[in-house]
Amino acid sequence: xxxxxxxxxxxxxxxxxxxxxxxxxxxxxxxxxxxxxxxxxxxxxxxxxxxxxxxxxxxxxxxxxxxxxxxxxxxxxxxxxxxxxxxxxxxxxxxxxxxxxxxxxxxxxxxxxxxxxxxxxxxxxxxxxxxxxxxxxxxxxxxxxxxxxxxxxxxxxxxxxxxxxxxxxxxxxxxxxxxxxxxxxxxxxxxxxxxxxxxxxxxxxxxxxxxxxxxxxxxxxxxxxxxxxxxxxxxxxxxxxxxxxxxxxxxxxxxxxxxxxxxxxxxxxxxxxxxxxxxxxxxxxxxxxxxxxxxxxxxxxxxxxxxxxxxxxxxxxxxxxxxxxxxxxxxxxxxxxxxxxxxxxxxxxxxxxxxxxxxxxxxxxxxxxxxxxxxxxxxxxxxxxxxxxxxxxxxxxxxxxxxxxxxxxxxxxxxxxxxxxxxxxxxxxxxxxxxxxxxxxxxxxxxxxxxxxxxxxxxxxxxxxxxxxxxxxxxxxxxxxxxxxxxxxxxxxxxxxxxxxxxxxxxxxxxxxxxxxxxxxxxxxxxxxxxxxxxxxxxxxxxxxxxxxxxxxxxxxxxxxxxxxxxxxxxxxxxxxxxxxxxxxxxxxxxxxxxxxxxxxxxxxxxxxxxxxxxxxxxxxxxxxxxxxxxxxxxxxxxxxxxxxxxxxxxxxxxxxxxxxxxxxxxxxxxxxxxxxxxxxxxxxxxxxxxxxxxxxxxxxxxxxxxxxxxx
Length: 712
Prior knowledge:
- This is BED-type domain-containing protein.
- This protein is an alpha/beta fold.
- It contains 32 helices and eight strands.
């Protein structure tokens, strides 16, 4: 029974035996005759005792226990040492790797990225650098985690670590209050999903995602979901619930406010502004130009040869193709086309194009007609003047790093002022635009929280005497006091403390507080390292940790102690986000949704310049007067070229032609977009120089710059 070499070496066989030679798992104890299933190892555990999966043998002598325990400990130590040693087959390779230089080490690391399809942005993470440093400090005997270890035990540890981090995050909810962010969307499998996150100034935390396919349009069920989430986060911590302004959310928000009298439901400001842009895009002349621009980009990107030709002319710069989910991507399309205006004109009038096989196609001829059409470019400039300020507001409210509640009210006013200046105060040029803005602002976007945030922002309150006497703003603050402060006693204390803030008494009036009321955002860039080239991106983690932003909640924390109740309310209001789109952006990464984030890393906070009054427009000239060649003494202009090819004047169409064109539109990939008479004066529309950063125009965020297209 014990003739083989392994049994002779293992002392366990001296005190156990096999009752059945054919069954080597059933081992019988010599002392108590107990049969253990699991081989000799389990039998030794039975005799030594104190093992979780075995009962202790009460008849085993102590010296046997000691002998077996010592043997088992030695075997365990040998196994651990063996596991740390490399396989003999890998010794040569390991020695070779240990002797490699820096370049070869980088090759091994980069090869892992390439073969495993790891995004190179992972190298920017601090966690990647920490992992490399941990391996270096451990030494050459580092054993990589196995597939199973990564999937189960290590993952469980990481979940516990993450929960620990989130517990600290939850403490901020009590201090600052928080916003519940809700965003519903449809996945590629046609499931309607709702993602819920909780936002506060420190960070945004994912809570859960639910499949709402069966009740997305039902306001009662939507209300139940929101109400349950408020209960989970705790009503005392929640200041507002932010969602899009679909009809189901509007009604659910009203039900929620009725049941929860100390919080607000707020429509997503980014969604509202996007709807404003969409309404503006429905103006006939703008709609036609946008459609022409989309046809232009579509034609280029649907023909590989044309695309390659364009890239040669634009020096590998791309045009933005409009997205399907958010309308502001159409603005980005228009902007990118305008930036390449000269190169597109040069390409479609070049000898290379004329000789190409595409130039003879009917669709291509319509594209060339569009490129040479003066009113096309004039309307593009009109669109940029109208939409540019609104896109800036959109970027402000869509910024997760800096709460926008204290800025949105002023931002909307500044955007309208910028539009007025862009058209030299000619009301006829923008009155229809303001009507669209005001309708959305009044019925959807303008909320008491926005007004209260404006009054409590020292950056504006102490520099504008009209704020304190403005009925709309004051009423918004009072509404917030009554709703967000649960007890009448605290409400009364806030009303007593409010004049101290308004009169700048106490700590509000000291020189330190006065100097820090207003900190200009452009100063932040002094803290950034220089770029090696203009196309480089800044590391977002560097920006967050090394850049100083004026934080109005910190201002209240530093100087609001003389009004403690008002201080707490101000911090809770000014810490709020205005958008639920951070939720959307996080999940669009995984679902590959057609969403373009307009905030690029190296101009991520330039939306603040709208709040600094830096928007202006210089006098412009008509596109027809632009010279084809800058050094042309004969004065050949693009207007002359347009008239020469027959696109200088709009074509007149019969009703029959219009009807025929409409009926054939579904079967034609490139419908013929006819030119219409301008509904506004074009003589002062087209001039790139009217948008330079020095003149505080659209160029100031790189919108029309030839050197900056990071957000394209």
